[in-house]
Design brief:
Blueprint (H helix, E strand, L loop, with lengths): L3 E4 L5 E4 L19 E4 L34
Antiparallel strand pairs: 1-2, 2-3
């Protein structure tokens, strides 16, 4: 399965599929065999970069897809 990222309204980024998550130094996070994780997007999680549900009632964003303009050359 290809990796799929879903932006959840009022919530996290859900990542599904073949996942390799690395930190800024290139070290791999141990995901315990998971094929689906949620990444914090609100900054409130005590388990960053993973979502722990702390956003509930404190983060609002209506996730609606849109097209980005072409990159500047």
């Amino acid at each position: 399965m290809a990796t799929k990222l879903t932006v959840l309204s009022n919530g996290s980024l859900r990542v599904e599929g073949d996942i390799e998550l690395v930190d800024a130094q290139g070290n791999t996070y141990g995901l315990g065999g998971r094929e689906r994780i949620s990444i914090c997007r609100c900054g409130l999680s005590s388990n960053k970069p993973f979502c722990d549900g702390s956003h509930k009632g404190h983060f609002e964003h209506d996730a609606v897809a849109f097209d980005l303009p072409a990159p500047k050359v």
